[in-house]
Specification:
The complex is a heterodimer of chains A (about 110) and B (about 120). By secondary structure, chain A is mainly beta. Chain A is built from no helices and nine strands. In chain A, strand 3 and strand 4 form a beta hairpin. Chain A is globular. Chain B is mostly beta strands and about 120 residues long. In chain B, strands 2, 4, 5, 6, 9, 10 and 11 form a seven-stranded mixed sheet that branches. In chain B, strands 1-3-8-7 form a four-stranded antiparallel sheet, with no helix packed on it. Chain B is globular, with a radius of gyration of 13 Å. Chain B starts with a strand and ends with a strand. The chains are: A mainly beta (about 110), B mainly beta (about 120). Chains A and B meet through strand 3, strand 7 and strand 8 of A and strand 5 and strand 10 of B.
Chain lengths: ~110, ~120
């Protein structure tokens, strides 16, 4: 089965840039979606199709995808960005897979 | 506006089954599928399966194959997820989620907590 690997945690100071990776075999050939989940809430998509951003998501959120790693980048990090982030792909065997999730801590 | 409203929390005994509903509104129900995702306490998101509401076709995660059943009722604009042979490992929040054009999940239900305990 297809596995997506994320770092368990990332810490960053306010105003700095956070980078969250999602590793998978040839993930660059797939479309990657990223979700933000705050405690007690349902997930919200922040980046879809590798690098597209829903209209209500700030431009500070961006994504890229190449080879075996997809990346979610959050610039000018704010306290309100503190959350869990999950990557997601659709595999060739008609299965959807989520990464294990990364907890973003704003110091 | 698009809304997915799920049924309330459930407490079940080991070995029992649970059925969670997800009522959709604010869009053409039959034009979109519906996925189910669960999240155990303190854990990550886990995809369970999806249903093509238009024709009832389903695809299930290999992990849940044989234990999960998704059904849609187009007249009630509601999708049901039934999970059988419950164990304590099935204690989780269960979400329904609408896929946008078959890709990412753009709308989610509020989640339903299912607790399995003797």
């Amino acid at each position: 089965s297809y596995v997506l690997t994320q770092p368990p945690s990332v810490s960053v100071a306010p105003g700095q840039t956070a980078t969250i990776t999602c590793g998978g075999n040839s993930i660059g050939t797939k479309s990657v979606h990223w979700y933000q989940q705050k405690p007690g809430q349902a997930p919200v998509v922040v980046v879809y199709d590798d690098s597209a951003r829903p209209s209500l998501i700030p431009e500070r959120f961006s994504g890229s995808n190449s080879a075996n790693t997809a990346t979610l980048t959050i610039t000018r990090v704010e306290a309100g960005d503190e959350a869990d982030y999950y990557c997601q792909v659709y595999t060739n065997s008609d299965q959807w897979v989520f990464g294990g999730g990364t907890t973003l801590t704003v110091l | 506006q698009v809304q997915l409203v799920q049924s309330g929390a459930e407490v079940k005994r080991p070995g029992a089954s649970v059925k969670v509903s997800c009522k959709a509104s604010g869009y053409t129900f039959s034009s979109f599928g519906m996925h189910w995702v669960r999240q155990a306490p303190g854990q990550g998101l886990e995809w369970m399966g999806w249903i093509n509401v238009g024709d009832g076709d389903t695809e299930y995660s290999k992990k849940f194959q044989g234990r999960v059943t998704l059904i849609s009722d187009t007249s009630a604009t509601t999708v049901y997820m039934e999970l059988s042979s419950l164990t304590s490992e099935d204690t989780a929040v269960y979400y329904c989620a609408r896929p946008w054009l078959g890709t990412y999940f753009d709308k989610w239900g509020q989640g339903t907590l299912v607790t399995v305990s003797s």
